[in-house]
Amino acid sequence: MVYISIDFLPLFLYNPAILRLGKKEEEDKMAERALAARSQSAVIPEELPTRLRLLREAFLKTLSPHTRLAYSRDIEDFASFLKEEDSTEAVLKMIRGGQGEANSLALSYKANLLERGLSPSTVNRRLAALRSTVRLARTGGLVAWELEIRGEKSRPYRDTRGCGRDGFRRMLEAVSGSGKPREVRDRAILRLLYDLALRRGEVARLNKEDVDLEGKTLMVLGKGRREPEKLTLPDETVRAIEDWIQVRGNDAGPLFRNFDHAGKKSEDGRLTEDGIYRVVVALGKRAGVRAKPHSLRHSAITTALELTGGNLVSVRDYSRHSDFNVIKFYDDRRGDRGGEVARLVAASASL
Description:
This protein is mainly α.
């Protein structure tokens, strides 16, 4: 170990030759870092649109079909706000002006979303799409910053009870006892939405080949998943699907087809997510029930908690939620515990 005399220390610290050497080394390091940063981030302006387009195309390929569609719609909405026909041009317009201008544009867009009366969850999803797009540009070395606009405070799953078992039964009765092809199809759709708590996108993506009636199973490509998972079909659901396939035929292709000749159709005649939404809303009106596809899923999960005595693990497997806290929220909401406490407090102070 080398000891430096205290008397010598000032000379050591303030020796001009040593200071110049240290300063030069530091300057050299700073120059190297700046050169490396420029080489990594320098993008010729003419190349920027192509680079960004390729980045976005690669990014979209990593997403599930459902997420890809939702993301694309959200960015297209932003493009519409900027009066740009091409979504990539809209993103370019945002990032070219730097972080300050991008934040200003995003803030104006957020204000526009709120003025349109969109829900906080929709506002937050669209802002998240913008943030992920800028983050993608940052990953690709096109920018060195991120958006700083925050979303709105939102409480998800405000109403988890849906239309309830009685409401579902009334909807089922509205299409029971009829041999009309459309009603046979709709009955099978209702059964899948409620019995298995499927999302409408999961139902829309089903093909005839996904159904194994003999084995009573169904292959479902879940939300955010890349591979389908095998689900067990209850007897009631099997019978409804059997009835529909007898009408539909055994040929391969979309399990549910569109009967609406006037509506917008997919290339393969598949009943789309929007089509399923319209089917459920219309059936709800016929039955005197306010219903949407996801409210049937809410009803099914709430019913599952009631029938299993609040078995959160089993119901999470049934609903296929990735976040266990979502099921806990369902369980809290079904009991109206806050209301029970309010009644106890009021009774304790009654005259």
